[in-house]
Structure formats: C-alpha cells, structure tokens
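#structure-requests
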Amino acid sequence: ELTEFAKTVREDQEKADIVRDRAALIQAQIIIGSMLLSVAIAAILAFYTSSIIARPINAVTNIAQRVTQEANFDLQVPVTTEDEVGALASSLNQLIQQVKHLLEEQEAENQARLIQSEKMSSLGRMLAGVAHEINNPINFISGNLVHAKTYTDDLLALLQTYQTEVPHLSPALETLAEEIDLEFLLADLPKLFNSMKVGADRTREIVRSLKDFSRLDEGEVQLVELHACLDSTLLILNNRLKNGISLVRNYGDIPTIPGYTGLLYQVFMNLLSNAIDTVEEKAAQNPEFSPEITITTERCQNNWVIVRIADNGCGISPENLHKIFETFFTTKPRGIGTGLGLAIAYQIVVEKHRGKISCESELDRGTEFAITLPISHA
C-alpha cells in the first residue's frame, strides 16, 4: 500500500508539474499578448494624436511659412476643431488679415505720398517756369524805369527852365497847358514813377518767393533763413491775408539752420493755410470775430530754434487732436481736405530735419503749432 501511495503521489506530482508548466506557458503568452496589445494601442493612439494635433499644427506651420515666403496674405488656415489648435489657427488667420490690412493702408499711404510728391514736384517746375517768364519782363520794366525817370526828370527840368526863361507864353501854349493841367502833371508824374517802381519791386519779391517755393525737390542741405522763408510764404498768401486777418510777427534773434528750403516752405504753407482756413471759418460764423494769426520765433537751449504758428480760430477737439498727423485724417469736407498736409509736414520736420512738431489746441479758442528745428545738422 505504501508503494502504491508513493506511486500515486509521484503521478500527482508529475501532473501538477505539467499543469504548472502549462500555467507558466499561458502566463507568458498572456504577458506577450498584453505587450503586443499595448504596442498596438500605443500605435493607434499615436496615429490618432498625429491626426488630431500634429497635422493641424503642421498645417498652421505650413501656412505661416508660405505667407512669409510668398507674401500671399490671402492664405488661410482651415479651422477643423474648436480646441486649442483651432484657436491657434483662428488667431493666425486674424493676424494674417491684420497684416494684410496694414500693408494695404501702408501701400495706399505710400501711393498718396508719391502722388502728392509728384504734384508738388510738378507745381515746383511750373512755378519755376512762371517765375522765370515773369522775371524777364519785370527786369526789363524795372531797368527801363530808371532810365525813363531820368529822361522825364530832364524833360521836366527843361520845361521848368523854359517857363522861367519865357514867362509869357503864347495863347496857344497857355491853352494847351490848361488842357493838360501842367501843374498837376509836374507834381504827379514823379509819384507815378515811384508807384511803378514799388510795383515792380513787389513783383520781383513775389517772383523770388515763387522761385524759392519751387525748390521742393532739392536734394542738398543748405543754410535756411527761417524769417525770409516765413515772409516769402506770407507774401504768396498775402491775397488771403487781406480778408481782415490780423498778422502778428514776433521774430526773435535766431541763426540760420541747415535744412531743405523748399520743404520748409511747404511746411509753413500748410500750417499757415490751415490757420487762415480756421479763422475764416470762425469769422463766417461770427461777424464780430477778429481773426488773428501770430508767428513767433525764438532760440531755445542754444541748440534749437522754435517756430510757433498760432491762430484764434475754431480749434481742434480733444478726440481729433492726437490724430492730426495721421495720413488721410482730415476734419475738412470730402474733396477739400486730403489728409496729407500735416502728415507730410510731420515727415519733413521729424524725418528730414530731425526736428519736432507738436500741437496744442482748445475748441473755440485756437490752435498753436510748435516746430522745433536743430541748429546743427546731425
């Protein structure tokens, strides 16, 4: 019995070993299967993640690269999700549109400046031609006036000598002297020559101002006499200043400055024209209003010159004051204001002359522009 029991035990042990080996094999199979399943799931998840996240990000990257390389701002990133990637794509699309809008504005501004520059250049050439054509006959007239006055003075002296030497004229000469009012002629003729000389000199001043104003496209820095520049500009605008506008000049002791004469003419022309416009507008609204424009110049801190142009016109509202130097901004009716005058003046003062231009204004009290220019050119 013990022998059979031991045999049974050995058989059961062998069966247990077989079951244990099978269990170990099954365990290994389960582990290997789990690992393979994990790898498969990881691969699926990676593919899914790539499809959901990586591809949209790649699309965003590709569009961004194409926009920068091709400068094609009509490209847009497709927004396929509402998550963070979709928000990123929407933000990039908005940025592309904003850049496109800014570039279109800049292109329009550059185009307008180019057109304005061409217009001013054409105006300068036309003024130079007109000034030249006017200057030649005025020189003839001015030069001949000197000789004509000399000849007339000689004739008047001869006539007076004749009257002294021959006190008793014949009836015919006495009648002729009465008809031509000889005494009035002798007194008025010198006045006529003086008046013609004043007119010729003033015409020559206007011609000189036109010639100076025509130098809008000069490319070299020269020493500029600001007072002469202001006076020449006022001379050109004299016809508009005659309309009851009081002009006050407070000129200080300032030196010449290096700059572009024609461009500074353009700045002063814009500012003074605007000042005349605003006081005329206020005068039209209030007949009792006394329009006044004041020009002040002074030297500041030894290295700067300040030109102030002030008026007592309508003024500028606070919401518009910070926008007056922006291109295309204007408070004038469409077709009258281009919105370029002050923008170009700012460019000329700040960029061309390394100066500063500022504005202070109060509604119904007036406006003052301050132009600060360096005495030495950097």
